[in-house]
């Protein structure tokens, strides 16, 4: 076992599946105490038991859920050293078809949820001696697609907000580094769900201009998780306010 994160305590939002779950598994392998926060209670409890992690119900849009998570972690582990703001949603819509309700929901989960995570975790992390946060953005926080109006708005916000939070936490000498990771197209439930909601012809066109244009093809979640764990580890101790693109060459093409 690689114990490079032995003694660490990490919370991963949206950790019951996809990239979040692979990150949780990898952190456990590296010696960390891992907390999975998710809305999927049955699944979250099952996977947490399976990998030896803790589970806590977490709606990232609710400040009270974040407060409860911090209380539980402090009570059980006495500290928090790492946070992964991974929870997110994605639904394809352009300017004509996107609704205010849909736009607001995406912003609330993908952007406000990250804000609340950083804001809620920072005091406990600072009191624990510092650590590292990773905010999961997307390549669509840098580039975009006609069907990503709300999603790009939220992920672009995560990209810029991460830099502001990193500078703030450094200026206040908290010892907390904050970086964003920008995955390309990965084989996750969120991606599958978004494509399945499209008409067949639309889904085919979307696949052609996304995965079809990615030199290395679609990623496995573990390939993104490795990048997240790198940003959490001391191997990235000279990085804060940075953005790490892990997209199989999509933005280079």
What are its keywords?
47% helix, 253 residues, alpha/beta, Rossmann fold
Describe what this molecule looks like in 3D.
This protein is α/β, with parallel strands linked by helices and 253 residues long. It has a single domain, classed as NAD(P)-binding Rossmann-like Domain (Rossmann fold, 3-Layer(aba) Sandwich), CATH 3.40.50. 47% of the residues lie in helices and 15% in strands. It has eight helices and seven strands, in the order βαβαβαβαβαβαααβ. A seven-stranded parallel sheet has the order 3-2-1-4-5-6-7, with helices on both faces.
The CATH superfamily title: NAD(P)-binding Rossmann-like Domain
Beta-strand percentage range: 5-15%
First-to-last CA distance: 37 Å
The CATH architecture assignment turns out to be 3-Layer(aba) Sandwich
Biggest sheet architecture:
7 strands, parallel
Give the topology.
Elements (H helix, E strand, L loop, with lengths): L8 E5 L4 H12 L3 E6 L2 H11 L2 E4 L5 H15 L4 E4 L14 H28 L3 E6 L12 H23 L4 E8 L5 H8 L3 H10 L11 H12 L10 E4 L7
Parallel strand pairs: 1-2, 1-4, 2-3, 4-5, 5-6, 6-7
Helix pairs in contact: 1-8, 3-4, 4-5
Short description:
The chain has 253 residues and is α/β, with parallel strands linked by helices. The protein has helices spanning 18-29, 41-51, 63-77, 100-127, 149-171, 189-196, 200-209, 221-232; strands at 9-13, 33-38, 54-57, 82-85, 131-136, 176-183, 243-246.
């Amino acid at each position: 076992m690689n114990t490079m994160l032995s003694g660490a305590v990490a919370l991963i939002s949206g950790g019951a599946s996809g990239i979040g779950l692979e990150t949780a598994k990898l952190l456990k392998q590296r010696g960390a105490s891992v907390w999975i926060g998710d809305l999927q209670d049955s699944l979250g409890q099952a996977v947490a038991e399976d990998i030896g992690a803790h589970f806590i119900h977490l709606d990232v849009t609710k400040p009270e859920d974040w407060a409860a998570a911090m209380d539980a972690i402090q009570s059980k582990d006495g500290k928090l050293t790492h946070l992964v703001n991974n929870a997110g949603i994605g639904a394809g819509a352009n300017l004509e078809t996107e609704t205010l309700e849909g736009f607001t929901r995406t912003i609330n989960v993908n952007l406000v949820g990250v804000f609340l995570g950083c804001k809620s975790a920072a005091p406990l992390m600072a009191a624990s001696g510092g650590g590292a946060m990773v905010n999961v953005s997307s390549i669509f926080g840098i580039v975009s697609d006609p069907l990503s109006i709300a999603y790009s708005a939220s992920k672009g916000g995560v990209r810029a907000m991460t830099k502001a939070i990193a500078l703030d936490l450094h200026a206040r000498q908290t010892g907390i580094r904050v970086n964003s990771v920008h995955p390309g197209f990965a084989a996750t439930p969120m991606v599958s769900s978004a494509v399945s909601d499209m008409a067949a012809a639309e889904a085919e066109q979307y696949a052609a201009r996304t995965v079809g244009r990615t030199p290395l093809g679609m990623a496995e979640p573990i390939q993104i998780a490795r990048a997240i764990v790198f940003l959490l580890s001391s191997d990235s101790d000279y990085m804060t306010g940075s953005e790490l693109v892990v997209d199989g060459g999509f933005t280079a093409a």
